[in-house]
Amino acid sequence: MQYMLHLSIKHLDLLHNHAETSFPLEAVALLFGRIVEQSFIVNRIELMQNEASSSTTSFMVNPEEQYRLLVEAEKQDEELVGIFHSHPAPPVPSIRDEQNMKLNDVVWLIASKESGNWLSKAYLMEDQQIKEVDLCLI
Fold it and tell me: Where are the domains of the chain?
C-alpha cells in the first residue's frame, strides 16, 4: 500500500503563501494530525519562523517552540505528522534533508517555485530509503 498525505487545499495554499512571503529564504511549518495505517492526515498547520534566518538552503525550528507545540498536540490527541519547508531548487530532499529525515520519522513536504508556480512533493524515509508519498488534497 502506498503512503498518503491528506491535507486540504486551504492548508496547501497557506503553506505556499508562507513560502512566498519567506522567499528567497526557506519557509518552514509543522503539520499536526493523526496517522492511520499508511495515511498521514493533517488537521492543523503551525507556520514557524526559520531560525536559520539568513539561509536560502536550510531551516531550523526553535526547539522550545517545537516542544511546546508537541505537548499541545498531545493534549489534543494529535501528533506531528509532517514537516514542510521550501526549496530554492526542485522539491526533492537535499542531502541535509535526508540526514534529518532519519531523525524525524514523519512525512517531509517540500515546496519549490523553480518552475514559476509553487509545487509541493512529499517524502518519507523507510528502511533507509526515501519514498515519495502521494498527496491527497481534500
Answer: 4-137
Q: How much is the pTM? A: 0.89
Q: What is the pLDDT of residues 58-92, one digit of tens each?
A: 677 777 888 888 899 999 999 999 999 888 777 87
What top-level class would CATH report for the domain 4-137?
A: alpha beta
> Which positions are catalytic?
26
What are 95-116's pLDDT values in tens digits?
A: 887 888 888 889 999 999 877 8
Quick one: cell of 37? 495505517
Q: Within 13 Å and on the Cβ side, how many CA atoms surround 70?
A: 11
Say whether 104 sits in a helix, a strand or coil: coil
Show the 3-state SS of 34-103.
Answer: EEECCEEEEEEEEEECCCCCCCCCCCCCCHHHHHHHHHHHHHCCCEEEEEEEEECCCCCCCHHHHHHHHH
Residues forming a β-bridge with 109: 84, 122
